[in-house]
Amino acid sequence: MSSDVTRSGPPSQSVPGGAPVRSISELLGLRARHLNPTLSVSYREPLKIVRGEGAYLFDADGRAYLDMVNNVCHVGHCHPRVVAAGQRQMAQLNTNTRYLHDHLVEYALRLTATLPPALSVVFLTNSGSEANDLALRLVQAHVRARGTVVVDHAYHGNLSSLIDLSPYKFNGKGGAGKPAHVEVAAMPDIYRGACRDATDAGRHYAAAVAAAVSRLAERAIPTGVFLCESLLGCGGQIVLPDGYLPAAYAAVRAAGGLCLADEVQVGFGRAGEHFWAFERQGVVPDILTLGKPIANGHPMGAVVTTPEIAASFVSGMEYFNTFGGNPVSCAIALAVLDVIADEQLQQQAASVGAFLQSGLRSLQKDHAQIGDVRGCGLFLGVEIVRDREARTPDRAAARAIVESLKERQILLSTDGPDDNVLKIKPPLVFSRDNAAEFLDKLAEVLAQVPAEG
Ligand SMILES: Cc1ncc(COP(=O)(O)O)c(C=O)c1O
Fold first, then answer.
1. Of 166-170, 183-187, 327-331, 445-449, minimum mean pLDDT range
2. Is the pLDDT of residue 2 over 50?
């Protein structure tokens, strides 16, 4: 999309669904009074976004913002083929999965065709959290062991079972700390971590997973599962070092545990060279969980596992999910797979991601605030630091950069343990021109940030 989208006029005053149109201050006041009080709002001056198209979001005055952080609207906001598939199916039938329906079976066939043959049984859910919670039940059914190893700073979902497995939450503000059945392995971070200078960093960090398994064993807690994202999101857009998952999986499996790959954030071609990010490591997880991009913003998640693990779950108790796998969700998810293939979005993630990464590395040469550039495909992280030698994280500068880019109509956000990593994970329709525009504006902002930050 060209930048002339910024000239499109303000939206009409009627909102689909019939809600009255309210000002930003009214909306903030009403949210504060009537909605979940723990919800945050992005930006110092919040945005009221009313429309999306491709890689762009539009505010109530018709201003276009380049969205570089929404990894949910994977094939582009409101992609016409995805919208049409949902509308068609909504007008025809939406019911539960106790009736036979072509879409459900077709989706299982199409999804598993993208995966290694061992991962052939699909459960459909309504969110990534539900997928991870169901995966934990599969683990219990198969190995009957509660011990869980997770990676530091990870987030795996909003259900109680997953807050317990998310160091990002249980060690964060308001968190209750690590439960007894959980052990935390250090993040395999080759920029900051303890093994950052090791020649074989993957194996060194995998030793931390083996050590976590041993700590559970010392407390007579058998290891049931190692839960790890295939690229680390909340941890700060971290690419796993080569050899990490093979060695970590071997240690967990030797102790009788299963290996769960959480690709709720990073699946479906975002990694560029591979459709699934675990493929980068040459491993096959026992269970894979999916969400966010699976249906381009329509609420959906999935668990994919082996026939053996699925068979262990057959106990006489049915797993029924009222909405999971309904014909509308499946129609939308099928359209997402079609668009990824037809518009070659995995290839686009690889090529635009490489262009963006090399542009960021060039900026790094001139701007000392950039400590590290990392990532793959369209999943990139930029570490903002105060002192490049000491690698001192600069959260205030990272925030200032995000705010300044917003003024220039580019939406980004931060993550990582020090909240100083610019996280870049746009819809995959993000183009080379979009990347060039971002690089120009980032250069402009970096030249100003020391004064602002
Ligand atoms: C890695 C990861 N797993 C699971 C979840 C939970 O997904 P959902 O918010 O759809 O429940 C998230 C959400 O941010 C996530 O980033």
1. 445-449
2. no
Distance CA 444, CA 174 (A): 38
Atom of ligand 1 nearest to the CA of 266: 1
CA of 289 to the centre of ligand 1 (A): 10
pLDDT band at 252 (very low <50, low <70, confident <90, very high): very high
284: left (phi over 0), alpha (psi -120 to 50) or beta: beta
Q: What average pLDDT does range 187-192 have in this prediction?
A: 95
What's the pLDDT score for residue 3? 40
Confidence (pLDDT) at 199: 86
DSSP secondary structure string for all residues of 134-202: HHHHHHHHHH---EEEEETT----SSHHHHTT-HHHHTSTT-----TTEEEEPP--TTTSTTTT-TTHH
Task: Return the pLDDT at 13.
Answer: 53
Closest CA to 261 of 282, 18, 168: 282
Residues written for the chain: 453
For residue 100, give the amino acid letter: L
Residue 344 has pLDDT above 80, yes or no: yes
Q: Are strands 287-290 and 301-305 parallel, antiparallel or unpaired?
A: antiparallel
- β partners of residue 424: 380
For residues 186 and 417, give the distance between their C-alpha atoms in angstroms, rounded to a whole number: 12
List of domains in the chain: 3-71+344-452 (3.90.1150.10), 81-342 (3.40.640.10)
Shortest-distance atom of ligand 1 to CA 129: 11
How far is ligand 1, taken at its centre, from the CA of residue 302, in Å?
12
Does 4 have pLDDT greater than 60? no
Q: Is the CB of 70 within 6 Å of ligand 1?
A: no
Determine if ligand 1 sits within 6 Å of the CB of residue 129. Answer: yes
Rounded CA-CA distance 106/83 in Å is 19
